[in-house]
Design goal:
The chain is an alpha/beta fold. It folds into two domains: 4-123 and 213-234, Peroxisomal Thiolase, Chain A, domain 1, CATH 3.40.47.10; 133-209 and 236-386, Thiolase/Chalcone synthase (Peroxisomal Thiolase, Chain A, domain 1, 3-Layer(aba) Sandwich). It contains 13 helices and eleven strands. Helix 4 (90-103) packs across helix 13 (337-353). It is globular and about 55 Å long. The chain binds coenzyme A. The site of coenzyme A has 14 residues, from helix 5 and helix 6.
Length: 387
Amino acid sequence: MRDVAIIGAGITKFGERWSTSFRDLCTEAGIAAIEDANVAGEQIDAMFVGSMSAGRFVGQEHVGALVADYVGLGGELHIPATRVEAACASGGLAFRQAVAAVSSGMSEVVVAAGAEKMTDVGDSTDVLAGAADREWESFAGATFPGLYAMIACDYIHKYGLTREQLAQVAVKNHYHGARNPYAQFQNEITQSTVMNSTLVASPLRLFDCSPVSDGAAVVVICPLERAHEFTDTPIKVLASAQAGDTIALHDRPDFSTMGATVAAGNSAFRQAKLQRKDIDFVEVHDCFTIAELCAIEDLGFVPKGTAGKFTEEGETQLGGKLPVNTSGGLKSCGHPVGATGIKQIWEVVQQLRGEAGKRQVEGAEIGMTQNVGGTGATVVSHIFGRV
Ligand SMILES: CC(C)(COP(=O)(O)OP(=O)(O)OC[C@H]1O[C@@H](n2cnc3c(N)ncnc32)[C@H](O)[C@@H]1OP(=O)(O)O)[C@@H](O)C(=O)NCCC(=O)NCCS
């Protein structure tokens, strides 16, 4: 297997993009990434596009071909484009397929994209519920806020998490998002903003939830040995891991431990031959505040039951021991579901190039991502390093 590097990255502003179509979002991010990578269309030989449900969100299927066409890789170039779907982990998984294509030697220069346009429909909660077990969860009334509320109840019962500690996850992510010009919400908030916001599914309130969003993100990769043909600042892929679990939350032995995150994280650390202490920052899947706490525990950064205190002490904020979600996370940067996994990787690229501006992690050398589908039936995790 060959080593792989990222040579370019592009993103759109996340948010409610009323006047921009799905294809235009993909084109905007795709052209930005291809220009950033300094590659010509003729040099690209495959594309993978992560999208959870363009069919239900915008009525568009066959999105691999659509995106390739609109970024100028269909038509005369006839580049093979493949859509990848794993609910909210679609973007991370599209990247993993791209890495497999390059590392195996099947392809040389490959584009990995993620996109979703969610705000055009009135029933986004029901579309998202299709990522759970439709027969046993969604038909019984469980929505994603409801399922993660059950995780939060279990966690609070077991570990005595305080309301303030949970709120601090959102406060910290809005602090980071306020420093990201591509974020959906660029305003700082306080714990009382979270604790006085509308109750969505007890104990989760509006500001515990990621929003419904539009956006796209794209990266370009190639064999590490060729990366300097395109860029002076390649980012090496040190590990690419994926793990699965039961589709339904009620079939898990422990609601507040995501087994697939534990498995994918362990695999990623084994591949990269790194320790937890070697990671300078991490982008995790905070679709709800409770998910961020579970993620940093299940990846092994802090012991189970202690992430709330770690967060309250400021250790996950810029300047802390482990900055988490410097992009603003799903909470503040936004969560166009198919785009999120690639957005996490885009943020790692900004940080490792030293181009993250006001949210730069000083001396960042190694970054990690964790992207979740559903309540953890799919988890994709990557580790990256400066070359
Ligand atoms: C939380 C949620 C139910 C709110 O939806 P809603 O009540 O329809 O909200 P609206 O779109 O009507 O927005 C109402 C206001 O709240 C704001 N808002 C919406 N979601 C927000 C969020 N997550 N955080 C902060 N503010 C939010 C809007 O900007 C709007 O503000 P304004 O009145 O100043 O313009 C929705 O964002 C949601 O379902 N989130 C979870 C998405 C999800 O499950 N993703 C998959 C995870 S696995």
